[in-house]
Structures are given as C-alpha cells and as structure tokens.
Design a protein that fits this description.
With about 180 residues, the chain is α/β, with parallel strands linked by helices. About 30% of the residues lie in helices and about 35% in strands. It has one domain: Rossmann fold.
C-alpha cells in the first residue's frame, strides 16, 4: 500500500514518465526527473511522514545514484547524518563490497567501513527485483548497522513480492 493519500499519489504520478527500452531493450524506466523538478519538497516531506520512529534513526543511507538525491534531502529535512552507498571504485578504501543482480545485468555496491554501529534508514528511488536493496542491506549488516526501514519513491510490486515478506519496506507509489 502506498504511503500517499490517493490524491497526492495521482499528483505525483502525473510527473513520472515511462521511458521504454531504457537502459536496454524490454525495460521500462521510470523517469522521476519531472517529479523532482516540480514536487521535490512534497516528496521529501512525504518520506518524512513514513511510519518510522525517526527518533531512533541516526543516519539516512542513500543508494547510488537517485537514492543520493532523495536520501540526502531527507537527512537534511530530519537533521540526520547521511551515508552513501556507491558503485564499485567510487569510494576510497577501506570499503565493504557486495555484488548483486539487477533486472538488466549485474553490478557491485560499496560502502565505507564504519567502526561505530548505527540505526539507519535505507533510501532509493525504485524497488524493482530487489537486488540492489538486498545488497545494500548486506553492506549495512557488515557495518553492524540496524536497519529501521527501507524507503522507496516507487515500488514495482509486479517485479517483487518483498513488501509482503518485509515489513520494513515503505514506498510512496506502487505499480
């Protein structure tokens, strides 16, 4: 179920474009650029209203790359620290690495090794097959982070059943 009131969901959806055959054949990419250009403040505010005990959260973790945009803005909005999870080779050592499957390929995510445990919320733009968020969660576990929630702008529920099996998953829009 979407975190948004139906009228807000419809308003947000007006700004999300479907781009067919991107980044490869038979993939329909959800372009959120127009939504961020027109409703960015509303998106961040909606994220901050997710049913999470924010007082127990120390850091927001944004997953490259659109998760950086959403996560860093949410961290500022809530006065929390921000930690990036990046693609391989973008962070200086020491890092933890985790390979994962995308709906259209394979990749590796990395996260800085951080010595102090933390309570975190993971943020990304789209939950598709779940490979990216599962890799990010494994990186958090290796850092001894306690994941309080996993927030997404869009959950493509037809590609995953993660929401049914994972109460930590929240999304503003579901398809």
């Amino acid at each position: 179920m979407s975190l948004l009131h139906p009228s807000n969901k419809e308003e947000f959806e007006k700004y999300i474009l479907d781009v067919e055959n991107f980044p490869k054949e038979n993939v329909v990419f959800k372009d959120i650029s127009p939504l961020l250009a027109n409703k960015f403040t509303e998106v961040v505010t909606a994220f901050s209203q997710a049913p999470i005990d924010w007082s127990g959260v120390e850091h927001i973790i944004g997953i490259e790359s659109r998760g950086f945009i959403l996560g860093s803005a949410l961290a500022i909005h809530l006065n929390k620290g921000f930690i990036p999870i990046r693609k391989k080779g973008k962070l200086p050592p020491p890092v933890y690495s985790q390979s994962y499957q995308l709906e259209y390929g394979e990749d590796i995510l990395e996260m800085k090794e951080i010595s102090s445990p933390s309570s975190v919320v993971l943020v990304d733009d789209v939950l598709a097959t779940g490979g990216t968020i599962q890799a990010a969660a494994k990186l958090c576990e290796r850092n001894n982070f306690s994941i309080k929630a996993k927030l997404f702008l869009i959950n493509l529920t037809f590609l995953n059943q993660l929401k049914e099996s994972n109460p930590l998953i929240h999304s503003l829009i579901e398809y």
